[in-house]
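<amino_acid_chain>
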Amino acid sequence: MFFSGEAYRARAERACFVADELTAAGVRFVEMQLPDINGMLRGKITTLAKGLAAGGTGESTLIMCPRGGDQLTVDFWSNFDNGFPKMVAVPDYDTVTLCPWRPDTAAVLCDHYMEDGAPCPVDARHVLRRVCAEYETLGLEPRASIEWEFYLYHADDALMRAKRYAELQTFGRGWDFYSISRYPSWEPFAREFMARLLDTGIEVEAFHTEYGHGMYEFTCAPTHPLKAADDAVRAKAYLRTLAAEHDLVPTFMPALHMGSADSHNGAHHNVSIWRDGVNAFHDPATGGLTDLARHCAAGMMATMPDLHVAFRPWINSHRRMDRLSWAPEDTSWGVDNHAVALRVVHGAMPAKQTRFEHRASGPDVNPYLSMAALLWGGLEGIRSGLEPPPYAVGDPIETGAYARLPKTLAATTSAFRSSAEARTLLGDTFVDHVSIVRDEEAAEFAAWCEANAVDPDMAGPVTQWEYQQYFTWA
């Protein structure tokens, strides 16, 4: 069973209370938001009674099977032999929110369970919740936020139906960054987006143009890591909705323009650890990092190669590996160094702002998985008292002091599959299933390149296969 009789009754009472509040606000429907294996929101529109049901509602195990472009991987997890079994989507009442642009519809994020009541073994939201709980047993409070970078284009239905995404026109005619004068102005869109998210309980601290063709960035406020991941997946989905209302289309592909000095799309994860309301990364005596912060950084760096699939999960992800464009190629760290994997930030108010900025992830990650992997590595470093190498100064590759990260999806997946650390964090079912999904993706790309006489080298132009696979999907 999912819940004891007492726990079920408590959930049922809360469901009734929430439903009464929503009904009073004019809400008639619920969007059940179901994070899939890749951290994308899928779901269904239901009545209040069904969407808030204490025992959840049925859903397909295929939600955990998509690879690029919504192709499905049929493996041991969900197949003809086991009949493609059902799971159960259980609403997390802490995430219920109104959607003012859809006044008759509320939203709720769901956790995935198996029909026997066990947590779904490939649900990264469960994993992140568990990792955060392990910090709490040590009296530590992790905080996190994610920066989303994306390209924004004018929507052209004919071009998009023909999958000629490379021919779309960018929103904004120039290539600049931190501009407040780009034409047409992006500011009304940004303000509407920030206001819309604030109405749903998500604080976007900043929105600005970035260093690329039609490129933008927004940053969510730091909070508990589970809420940070929830905020991230919702913000991404809500941005798509708002863009469509303005005849625009965003893409979260990490790389579109090769050889142009474009900085590519990142999803930098900012992480700090607090204890008793105090930033446990900041050492007031030295103005630098505490021992706990050093151990945490060492663990994050040590586990990064094995867990690289959490940070660069797809073919196109690996194009965004160029430290000269501020996307790391190794496990380096350094103070305010944008070429490293783990940038140490002290900020104008170090006692509050000292943190690590993890720079390997792109906006095609599953935020639950990437956040869990990063925090778990830090936890391992803290528990083992690991010591990090010296800071990188300048180009980290030139020192040769740091482990290199896998350069292709095939190599990344191989490291992940053979990693004892990945299996300790995620379990065999998670690792084996994700590895099969990624291997199928890599094989499909290799076959397309061979059939079209295209060099699969990640330094070459972005392929039509990547545009078709990731432009509206990543």
